[in-house]
Amino acid sequence: MTPAQAIVRVLALAAALMAAGLAGAQPPEALKLTAERVESTDECRRCHFRRPDELKQLVTLDGFCVEEEAGIWDTQDKHRQAFLLLITERNRPLTEQILGFPLADVLTLPSGPAEPRAVSYRSDADPQKLADMQACLACHAPVAEPIARGSAQRTLASGVSCQACHGPGRLYMTPHQDSTAVWRIVKAEAKETLFGLRDVRHPVKRAMLCASCHIGSFSDEWKPDEKSPPRFVRHEWYAKGHPPLPSFEMAAFTSQMPLHWRHLSQKLSGGQKFAWYDAAPEGKDLEAQVARFIETLPRSVKIERSAFASSWLDANAAGLSPTPAADLPRTREVLVSAVGVLGAYASLLADVPAEMRTDFALYDCGACHHELRSRLPSESRVRRRLPPGRPPPAFWPLALARPAAEQSDGGAALEAALVELDAALGARPFGQQAQVKTAAEKLRVVSLTVAGELSKRPVDERAAAALLASLADPRHDEDRDFHAARQRAWAIRAVLYDLAAVPLRGDGSPPASRALSPAVGSVLGLSPQEAIPSSDPQVRLRIEGLFGDDPWQGPLRLRLPAGQQESVVGQLPHFLEAISAYESAWFRERLRPIQEAFPRK
Ligand code: HEC
Ligand code: HEC
Ligand code: HEC
Ligand code: HEC
Ligand code: HEC
Predict the structure, then answer these.
(1) Which of 86, 160, 237, 572 to mutate to test the pocket of ligand 4 (most atoms within 8 A of CB)?
(2) 169: Cβ–Cβ under 8 A, 6 or more apart, which residues?
(3) What are the residue ranges in the chain where pLDDT is below 70?
(4) 107 lines ligand 2 (CB under 6 A)
(5) pLDDT of residue 56
(6) 242 lines ligand 2 (CB under 6 A)
(7) Is the beta carbon of 368 within 6 A of some atom in ligand 5?
């Protein structure tokens, strides 16, 4: 197949993808975070916080959810603080330095040190300053919610709240607590369009959600209305001190968020199934249950029988991997989001308004900010297809997208789309606008199509071994760039955790233990003669230590300043130091045992 044929094939596939709402289709109106649709986060806390007795009366839970989602978010998740951190004593000078004016000009700030219950925009603020503040909060506090149920007073203090990810609560609040659990068989698509509950389980959709803030997005999808600002950190804000957004790898970021949910294999552990998993529960008549559920809905909700499936699996995993509970969870996340995240970056270039095309933050930071080396042009830098001196697209998204696309039939099409984008951007500094837009659009569609195709595949140990072989073999200078190497290291660790059956966080069940495969044993320097069980703590420690002696941080700083104790600003000097101290020879050395144990086929 020539690259041109490959693109044609992938574009044909893309039509199906658009129908599935992934590439370029209009996002459902119900998902928009408009003020009148948002509930107070206290409402979510009422149930999603473990209070056993009260809860049991309210709902029938059978181990489907952890019931502790709000507790985890409140105490461990940095998203909880995404707004508060901007106004704390420690960060406030930095925030004001980036913005160029005092926060009190635009916000109604509390006077005391206590956590504010209500912070909002000032109604008398200067419009330009207000617009700048809103541009920050598109990512740091995308919605002002009522301070309590039914209150007219609003607050931004919840930061990246439950509803910022899951969608505005007004429409799903009542139906989703349904005690017969028929809600579980409402198709994921109908939950989005009719009830405003975002499908965060679909790995491509999840990647686009995270990327909308962690990479940026100009898409209308995330804007409450057309006048809302995009999610984008401008270069001038970086130059004034905004911490550089790190590269994004979904398995690493979700696990460090940390998880407040369980993977399907954990939900089904112990041989027990939750209601409606693959069929109607015993003694329940599907049609009668659906009819009863529909009766409980307000008349304004126009729901058809076709919005219901006959099982949770059909409702949530139709068209995805045929073996969702058996798939290796982190490997699947790495594989699918690798190409999805490239799609998100391509979207940024495709959707950027003309007046912002020359914002340096759209391009590869390292291409301009590398230290000038003794020899020019430098041989230790990434080789590009653009003429030297033209700002190239970000390099790190390719570090995982290429090895992942290799596992699909879309590798050639992806390469062809990349060549086209480079040509468009290389035509002159910042490229020819129309050509760049077309090429970026194509790259977006090809990426999302390949990601969609990968999400349909079962991910077993063979698939994991094949991916590992590609990840350990840098063929396009991925080892020459700190951020690309970091992406690879995160991904390699995630796959090894899966292959060694290291339990996911938040799993209450005892770890399933089994002997390590000889290949994994040899990567970890454990002798194949000793039957080391995967539950042995040294297995996790050795995987953590693969890329440095400090099992957590090491030269690639694989531990994010996540959680509520770590500080992004406080860690920044160490992060920047690591970037300049990075040595590609060291990284290659680390990859060697993996290459030997998992050779490319
Ligand atoms: C009165 C109790 C109650 C309130 C209030 C509540 N929930 Fe829930 N939530 C539940 C129950 C019960 C489930 C379903 C659990 C199950 O199926 O076992 C659930 C499930 C969910 C799910 C998974 C849904 C799915 O389709 O799989 C999400 C996401 C969620 N809730 C988010 C929220 C958010 C966000 C809020 C606040 C805006 C909220 N909930 C408020 C009780 C509640
Ligand atoms: C595209 C989304 C986005 C926009 C827009 C944005 N930020 Fe951020 N901001 C982030 C992310 C993501 C981080 C965390 C960086 C990291 O992961 O290391 C962050 C971190 C910060 C921090 C450090 C917080 C800490 O934990 O110590 C400050 C301060 C900050 N941003 C201020 C601002 C200001 C001021 C603006 C507007 C001028 C702004 N941000 C706009 C996404 C954004
Ligand atoms: C940064 C985005 C984000 C935020 C903020 C967030 N969630 Fe989630 N939530 C997710 C993702 C992603 C999943 C994963 C679903 C999956 O893969 O099963 C999830 C899953 C869930 C589930 C389903 C759990 C399960 O085991 O199936 C519930 C319930 C839930 N979240 C409630 C909440 C509540 C309540 C809050 C606020 C206190 C919240 N979430 C905040 C992203 C988020
Ligand atoms: C609405 C915007 C938004 C969305 C959507 C979002 N994040 Fe974030 N996230 C942020 C901001 C802002 C911060 C930084 C908070 C701070 O430090 O002030 C952050 C911080 C984090 C951190 C802490 C580590 C670090 O380096 O900053 C992790 C991990 C993280 N996000 C993971 C995720 C994942 C996984 C998803 C998708 C399920 C996601 N985020 C979706 C805005 C968002
Ligand atoms: C096209 C080249 C180019 C690209 C790409 C670029 N920058 Fe810059 N950057 C510059 C220039 C030029 C300056 C101004 C230098 C000065 O004022 O001394 C600058 C200044 C900065 C500064 C302030 C440096 C200082 O010493 O005060 C930071 C921080 C920064 N950029 C971060 C970034 C980040 C993060 C990215 C990627 C998201 C990026 N830049 C992409 C050219 C670029």
Answers:
(1) 160
(2) 37, 38, 39, 43, 44, 162, 163, 196
(3) 1-25, 51-61, 113, 371-379, 505-513, 528-530
(4) no
(5) 47
(6) yes
(7) yes
In the prediction, which pLDDT does 19 show?
A: 46
Which residue do the tokens 């990284």 mark?
587
Question: Contact 413/9 with Cβ under 8 angstroms?
Answer: yes
pLDDT given for residue 27 in this prediction:
82
Q: Smallest Cα–Cα separation from 323: which of 232, 457, 473?
A: 457
Please give the C-alpha separations between residue 409 and each of 9, 137, 145, 405, in angstroms, as whole numbers: 10, 40, 45, 7
* pLDDT confidence of residue 377: 61
Structure tokens at 389: 């001196």
Which pairs from 11-15 meet CB under 8 Å and 24+ separation?
11/442, 11/445, 11/446, 11/449, 13/449, 13/452, 13/453, 14/445, 14/446, 14/448, 14/449
What is the pLDDT, as a whole number, of residue 199? 96
Ligand 4 centroid to Cα of residue 40, in Å, is: 20
Atom of ligand 1 nearest to the CA of 188: 26
pLDDT at position 572: 94
Distance set, CA 586 to CA 273, 404, 556, 576 (Å): 47, 24, 11, 18
Residue nearest to ligand 3 atom 18, measured at CA: 201
CB 12 within 8 A of CB 206: no
Tokens, residue 461 = 């140990």
Atom of ligand 4 nearest to the CA of 222: 1
Task: Tell me if 391 CB under 6 Å of ligand 5.
Answer: yes
Nearest to 392 by CA among 447, 433, 430: 430
Q: Is the dihedral of CA 309, 313, 316, 321 positive or negative?
A: negative
Q: Give CA–CA dist 601/17, Å, rounded.
A: 30
Cβ < 6 A, ligand 3 pocket = 44, 48, 65-66, 69-70, 73, 79, 160, 162, 164-166, 200-201, 206, 260-262
